[in-house]
Amino acid sequence: MYQLNDREVFMDVTDGVAILINYQNGLYHGTNQLGTWILEQLTAGHCPEHILERLRELPNCPDCMGKRLSTFVEDLHFVHILADGPAAEGELPRLPATLFGEIRFELTLETFNDAQDLLFADPIHEVDEEEGWVPTRES
Q: At what angle do helices 48-56 and 33-43 cross, to 10 degrees?
């Protein structure tokens, strides 16, 4: 099972859309609403097979949904968003009704690099694990 790779990534969900910032490489990522729901379930420890079962309960779920989900999970691993984690306790929640009007069964993970320079200019990256942030005259 999985959890958020919080050693490298910060995640925020607003209006059903996840924004993920990798503070190691300065890239940030965004998902659509379906991708966000799936990501939330994955990082809560639910297995992809159970997520796929939930998706297949929905009308018009395409036959290729398993492949789409598999590719999405691979993409999340590739950009270091997911890490191994404990299995979830409890039942996988159903998709929120707000998704039903917009669901097209597309999973997107977009990557942006336009904030890399800004992110690395932030002095928080000058933190020593033992001493913390020690400002210098140059800072």
A: 140
Cβ pair 90, 7 in contact under 8 A: no
Q: Which residues contact 79 (CB under 8 A, 6 or more apart)?
A: 22, 27, 29, 109, 111
Give residue for tokens 């140059």.
Answer: 138
Query: What single string gives the DSSP state of each residue in 41-62?
Result: HHHTT--HHHHHHHHHTSTT--
Query: pLDDT means per 10 residues in the chain (139 residues)?
Result: 93 91 88 93 96 91 95 96 93 78 82 68 58 55
DSSP label at residue 97: G
pTM of the model: 0.79
Angle of helix 48-56 versus helix 65-78 axis, rounded to 10: 140
